[in-house]
Design brief:
This protein is an alpha+beta fold and about 110 residues long. A four-stranded mixed sheet has the order 1-2-3-4, with helices on one face.
């Protein structure tokens, strides 16, 4: 991984296809629409990243979720380079850049 070991991160199941039975179990356990795809904890702050493919925008539930967050604590990213830029913006010192992020540099 490129993230330093002091960062805790995880993904959510939002945006992942789940069959009817699994979806029902996930919903019963508290899965709700809106939270972004990834979250990470850095310096006691929580940051969120929503991964999108152009031209997709935030869903209404995601827009509601975003309004609950501090404006500097989340990003919508359309590429790995945008994810790397956001991580650097919030002060994460990556151990290495992912190879895909190096394409087109230099």
């Amino acid at each position: 991984y490129c993230l330093p070991p002091d960062i805790m991160w995880s993904s959510t199941l939002n945006g992942v296809y789940l069959g009817p039975k699994t979806r029902s179990l996930a919903k019963a356990s508290g899965l709700r629409p809106g939270p972004f795809d990834l979250f990470l904890i850095h310096n006691r702050r929580t940051f969120w990243i929503e991964l999108k493919i152009h031209p997709n925008k935030l869903t209404p539930e995601q827009a509601t979720f975003a309004r609950l967050l501090h404006p500097d604590s989340w990003a919508v990213c359309y590429s790995l380079n945008e994810v790397v830029a956001f991580l650097q913006h919030i002060g994460v010192k990556l151990r290495a850049l992912p190879e895909a992020a190096l394409i087109g540099r230099g």
